[in-house]
Amino acid sequence: MWCGRAQLEGHGMEAAQVVIIGGGATGAGILWDLSLRGISATLLEQGDIANGATGRCHGLLHSGGRYAVKDTDTARECAAESNIIKAIAPHCVDDVGGLFVQFAQDDPAFFDQWQRAAEAAGIRSRRLSADEARELEPSLAANILGAFTCPDAHVDVFRLVLANLEAAVARGGRFKTYSKVTSIHTANGHVRGVRYRNALSGEEHEISCEMVINAAGGWAQSIAELAGVEAPIYCDKGTLLVLNHRLNRRVINRCRQPGDADILVPAGPTCILGTSSIRVPGPEGLSVSPEEVDRLLRLGDEMIPGLVDARILRIFCGVRPLYAPRTAEAAKGREISRGFALLDHETRDGVGGFVSIVGGKLTTYRLMAAEVCDCVVGKLGIIAECATDKTPLRPAIDRKTHQRALHLLPHPVADKMERRLGLATVRVIETIEARPELAELVCECELVTRGELEYVLGGSAPAPVFAISDVSRRTRLGFGPCQGTFCGYKAMLAGYQTHRWTAAEAANRFSAYLHERSRGQSFIHKGRQLEQLELNHDLYGAEQPFCAKPGVQDGN
Amino acid sequence: MRLDNLALDNCLKCSLCNTACPVMAVHTQYPGPKRLGPELERMRREGLSTDTEWVEYCLGCHRCDLACPHQVHVSEMIARAKAEHRKPLIHGLRDWWFARPGLLGRLTTILPALSNFALSLKPARYLMSKLMRITPQRKFPGYTRPNLRSPAISGKQMQHVIFFPGCFIRYNRPDLGKVVIGLLERNGLAVEVASTVCCGVPAIANGAAAEARAVARANINVLDRQAGSGMRIVTACSSCGHMLKTGFGGILEDDGRFAGEAQKIASRTFDLAELLMEQSDAGKLNTNFQPANLRLAYHAPCHQRSQGIGRPWYHLLRMIPGVAVEDLDAGCCGMSGTYGFKQEKYTVSMDIGKELFTKISAARPQMVATECATCQMQIEHGTTFKAIHPAEILLQAYDERHSG
Amino acid sequence: METNRYDVVVVGAGLSGLVAAGVAAHRKLKVALVATGAGSFVTGPAWLTAREIRQASTTADLGEAIDFFCEIATLAGCPYTGDITTARFLPSILGDFHSVALTPLTLWNAEPRKGVTTAIVGIRGLSSFDENFMAERLTEQARLIASGCAYTARQISLSRNMGVPVTTLRVAQCFDRDPVFREELTSALRAAASGFERILIPGILGLETSAEQIAQFERELGCQVSEIPTLPPSIPGLRVYHHLESYLHKIGVELYRGFPANKVEIQDGLCMGLQIASPGHPLNLRCRSAVLATGRSSTNPLGLEYAGCDQQMRPLNSTGSVITRNLFVAGPLPHSSDGDHGNAMRILTGYRAGSLAASTRGNHAA
């Protein structure tokens, strides 16, 4: 069911029935859904996977508890969708569970409301006493009054996006990273194709298509303008702090009206504190002030005493691209619905074959994708039902492979590798069996072996690597305390050794990598990470184009 | 999980701890303190299964801690990993005994001569080697009837101190305990011997955390009772001293009242040489030494260095006229208490000590002075030189004057 | 006899502290050195770049300071070479050239030389160094600076199992301890060097080996050999630290290793002593003068009061008054945002502070 891509490309030009713009969770989810329905689709992403809001969020797979009181429909949606995601992509989800904790300083009425609301939304939860809560999470403040459990979880956003893309490719889908759309061609009021530019080579290419889906998140408006239409969004910045080690086993939510710094999510060996809500003009040129950071730390300290002194590894911020119909313009960030809007530009603006999907949240990406695909499928005149709720994104690893992995590698290393690589684990195991030096842990903090690193850099990996931070997104290499100081260098050498890059290219990539990593640390104004940066500075010299002064983040 | 009592956040992955690790220097497969300490600790907090047999190869020498520019409590993290480590049954049974020298001491000193004899029999050592993996290469220290008692107090005006003897002095060398008392008395201090139990270092080294906590609490109760407020506690064994000064290795941190008491004890604990040195700095040291003609080499035990008190024994010995002392400064001896007795670790132990043995042979002293009992054992096992506690040399210097 | 009483107490074992302690010890004073671990200079090759020399050259006594440093480095067994008026291009960890004025001798002969056949020899399994990467980079970079020198990559294998991965530390420790290993390494390198006039290797030539031993090694090798900086543990940097520390110990500096000085005792504007945060209870050292060279990464024992120093390197409080007359601050300042001026400044400030401390005698209680 490859639906005619071959025919379409008969004249040597790229073609697809659908072009998706935006490689975040939404775009990737749409690619998978369309591919599963047998429709040829190509996804274009201007950066690496999850370049926008998806790659800069908490990674929280909402049980819905956060919306229970305010918005039962959304809560119910989240509850259902998070269960689906756990079922179709278990390797992306760390199902740690969560707590909604009542703190003495918060409104007690909200706590009671919460229980009723959770029930109404179908969220499984159990009430705990303060002692029981502290037994589960010993680092919680002494002044808590109780808590509710909830099925919150952490999702590795990069792995999730990659899983969707990989699954799509297996069904004929295509995607290109570092490909920025520069024009959308229309003729007779209908989309005909797009032009895009390869960000690395500068070359421009064309793809002819029948439909274009604008899933560009924070850039949705600028993409819409290429087709001469509008997709009004409102950019709301959220800042997140990555802390050096886990302070909590589960997701900890503050049981009150949603506010700043009231969620602490365990993410691999780190935990992430967030977030904030500040209106910004667009998705680029973001910065974080020391005051904002201090405020987040103080608020976090109310939940976990001592957090104010925790070492911050990295500060990042992303924008929530929220749908802003003209009438809601006056409202502040959180009040605008977290729901999404599917804009059919044929009916709105007379441009056929162009739809925009704006807004939404990570947890409901699959649902958003399904709705978009239903619409698109209708427009293409095809009958095909959504099957993404029932289809696992990846087949499970067989026992034999698992045992082979355990023979070669310590348990946690084997486990993480399997979760990241899936069936490709066999290939990496074979290389390690042939060359034992490939068992070396290149990233000691995230347990990435040299074998896995070479695989990710090699030609058979599902998502090509063009930069060292691309490696990081696929393996979490460099996400630990050294922030790539040591492992990034070895990754650079690996990129050279696998013939991906010449020596000069490798060295440039590493410079760029150091620059990016330092930007994420540049907003940290105190604490041990500054010393880590100084060590990095000592090692690679002042000639490197980075500094420890507060900088501006654009891109990652 | 407490936020930061181990200074995990301080680790910059600089690997300086690895450069100081004596095991890493001789064992090519040993992952090293950076991995077994902060990296495993971080993974432990993530909830991963971090157990590895390699933690058993840690000496517990604390050199990693001393080498860390940012004071990460590396060896404490490894000790925690040891406590959670699941050993093979044979090692488990052996280490159960090794963790309890107090118990062993109490049993063997019921009939010390017989015990010593039995423990030296070749068939017995053979069985121990086969059934318990205790290396037959080493001699066990001899046990003797425990007769260390507080001497009668001669003068009410004298300042009182309480002496924490530790298992080796109590069960193997009570005469050394008397030497310690003698030194203190000759410096105007009245000594009471504490009826304490094992300090707990062997328990921690062998992964017996519950035992370590139990003896710590027992010791705190005894010292609470026997040592009046402000009374100083004196140790002559570096490991005991290290343990008391670090609040029993920090293992009682969660334990409310005991944690506070442990801190108080830590603030009042002094190594014997440290105490005498303080007297010296205040001009109150008894310097009535008979000149001697002695060429010594001094070896600072790892648990002495980890107390951060300089090298007081080295300086004290040099005060004796005619005594020349060379500071060997040759790293860890490799014995580390019970470590060197373990069959699977014997070679590592001797490899680590090689540098020290070579330096001793090059120095050709008349004797090697070192205050740690197991360092003494290792030196006598690995070289042809005799090892002696510096306190014995000092007391002899006093006594000869007296009798002269 | 007073052991915990010193003429000068130096806090910090980075280049500043080591030089300051050396200055005071050379003046036959009783010196103590308090440190937690090695200074940050051990991360790299411990060299002084031309840029650092330029930045530090605003001061007249730079030459004197560098001369002193070179003197003690030689006495310590890790001689430096080069001088402050010239520089040569030496390979860095990233395979480009840095303009270096002074460096430990073992790194000196790695500059691009036209017409000199040079091999870059890596060790199989040593994953923090890639000889092919280095060779390609250096050849290209040499072309860019018009020093056409071709570097060729070679690799040797060692017979013994050095673990996975092999690290520079493991190799260096074997080099130090095992003469059989040294022999094997020598013959393997000799074979790889055949046909070349010079070889460059990653920094592995031992932590404890002396200059004579390395010279001997070079003679046995039969061709010129030079080290290239690698990822930490940086053996060349650590070697300098190890030798300087041992040298200071040999000439009578008392070393207090492993615990920070966390308090300065001040009376009437004079530093009477320092407190070391030893376990249990602090250790008090009394001194006539002191040097604080604790570096960027630590908390200054003077605490929050400290707000910079004056031209005589004395610490000032926020109102600009001198906190102590006989305590001097050297090296990069804690959490300084000025940017680090490198090893040259560390040596210069250490030299100055050491000299000032050596000539200043506070009066502490007898």
CATH C-level class of the domain at 287-403 in chain B: Alpha Beta
Strand % of chain B is 5-15%
Task: Give average pLDDT of chain B, whole number.
Answer: 92
How is the biggest beta sheet of chain A arranged?
Answer: 9 strands, mixed
Return Rg of chain B in Å. Answer: 21 Å
What is the tally of helical segments of chain A? 18
Distance between the termini of chain A: 37 Å
Biggest interface, and residues per chain? B-C, 43 and 40 residues
Placed side by side, the strands forming the largest sheet of chain B appear as 2-1-3-4
Alpha-beta classification of chain B:
alpha/beta
Based on the coordinates given, report the CATH architecture of the domain at 287-403 in chain B. 3-Layer(aba) Sandwich
**Judging from the principal axes of the Cα atoms, what is the shape of chain A?**
globular
Number of helices of chain B: 21
Fold and architecture overview:
- The complex is a heterotrimer of chains A (556), B (404) and C (366).
- Chain A is α+β, with helices and mostly antiparallel strands.
- Chain A folds into three domains: 5-52 and 158-232 and 338-380, FAD/NAD(P)-binding domain, CATH 3.50.50; 92-152 and 234-321, 2-Layer Sandwich (D-Amino Acid Oxidase, Chain A, domain 2), CATH 3.30.9.10; 399-540.
- Chain A has 18 helices and 24 strands.
- In chain A, the strands form five sheets. In chain A, strands 6, 7, 8, 15, 16, 17, 18, 19 and 20 form a nine-stranded mixed β-sheet that branches. A six-stranded mixed β-sheet of chain A has the order 10-3-2-14-22-21, with helices on both faces.
- In chain A, a hairpin with a 4-residue loop joins strand 23 and strand 24 (448-449).
- In chain B, helix 3 crosses helix 5, helix 10 packs across helix 11 and helix 13 crosses helix 15 (256-268).
- Among the domains of chain B are: 8-84, no CATH class; 287-403, Rossmann fold (3-Layer(aba) Sandwich).
- Chain B is built from 21 helices and eight strands.
- Helix content of chain B is 51%, strand content 8%.
- The N and C termini of chain B lie far apart (63 Å).
- Chain B has 404 residues and is α/β, with parallel strands linked by helices.
- In chain B, the strands form two sheets. Chain B has a four-stranded parallel β-sheet with strand order 2-1-3-4. In chain B, strands 6-5-7-8 form a four-stranded parallel β-sheet.
- In chain C, strands 1, 2, 11, 12, 13, 14 and 15 form a seven-stranded mixed β-sheet that branches. In chain C, strands 3, 4, 5 and 6 form a four-stranded antiparallel β-sheet that branches.
- The longest helix of chain C has 18 residues, at 342-359.
- The mean pLDDT of chain C is 91.
- The interface between B and C is large, with 43 and 40 residues.
